[in-house]
Design goal:
Length: about 250
């Protein structure tokens, strides 16, 4: 089954299987998504920074391919305004407020990724606007998504008003702010140093998501809310779709 991936150099590997319990939950979510419609679908995976969104997206994509659906993977990290633009235009992208308001390139994400991935869209998708590490412009690189493909996008702020109407299914990964901070520091210390990793996650990412939660109330918009605190034992907490009986597509 086809699997389309971003050309971005900011890539995380597919995680190894964590447990039978996790595999079962991922399989349940995949069956829920696949049972929505036979045509193209757009799935958002949201949550705090370091909630485990990218890994969950990789796992969900693999499970959907096991159900016979082609998958397309993308991240809104690949649809940000460039640091060069921030410097040239003089806007804030460093504080929590500035990160939330100014970091993301909403127009490119909507026009090049989300709108053409709709069931009635063209299917000609750009999976990376600007590479977050190199700054290279990839907006001329497209893929053709099959008519039954599922686009899975991981992102903070995925349910904000600029994106929210484009999703066919919304997943929120729940972790505490303390755990998210701990994971973030552990992930970025080697690159940034411990003190800088603490500052960035506390003063930029955490502060930004507090604004997002106050303004958009993302958990109220989620079809599924999943506690992802323990990778081996994720738990379905609720969401608008939590009571639906899942239907598996024939393999």
């Amino acid at each position: 089954m086809q699997a389309f991936e971003s050309v971005s150099t900011w890539r995380q590997p597919v995680p190894p299987p964590a447990s039978a319990a996790r595999a079962a939950l991922i399989g349940d979510v995949a069956a829920r998504v696949a049972g929505l419609a036979p045509g193209r679908l757009r799935v958002a995976i949201d949550g705090l920074t370091c909630a485990g969104k990218t890994s969950f997206g990789h796992e969900l994509a693999a499970a959907l391919r096991g159900l016979g659906r082609p998958t397309v993977r993308a991240s809104m990290d690949d649809f940000k305004n460039t640091w060069r633009e921030a410097r040239e235009l003089g806007y804030d992208r460093v504080s929590g407020e500035g990160y939330y308001r100014n970091a993301y390139d909403f127009r490119s994400a909507r026009d090049l990724l989300l709108a053409p991935a709709a069931p009635g869209g063209s299917g000609e998708l750009v999976l990376c606007g600007h590479d977050p590490l190199t700054g290279e412009d990839h907006r001329d690189k497209t893929i053709t998504a099959p008519a039954d493909a599922v686009l899975i996008v991981d992102s903070v702020f995925a349910f904000r008003p600029e994106y929210n109407d484009f999703w066919d299914y919304r997943i929120w990964l729940e972790v505490s702010a303390e755990l998210a901070l701990h994971r973030g520091i552990a992930r970025d210390t080697a690159m940034e140093g411990a003190q800088e990793a603490l500052r960035v996650h506390r003063d930029r990412y955490h502060a930004a998501v507090m604004i997002y939660q106050a303004e958009a109330d993302p958990k109220a918009l989620a079809d599924l809310i999943i506690d992802n605190s323990d990778f081996a034992r994720p738990v379905l907490l609720g969401g608008r779709d939590s009571g639906r009986v899942r239907r598996e597509e024939p393999g």
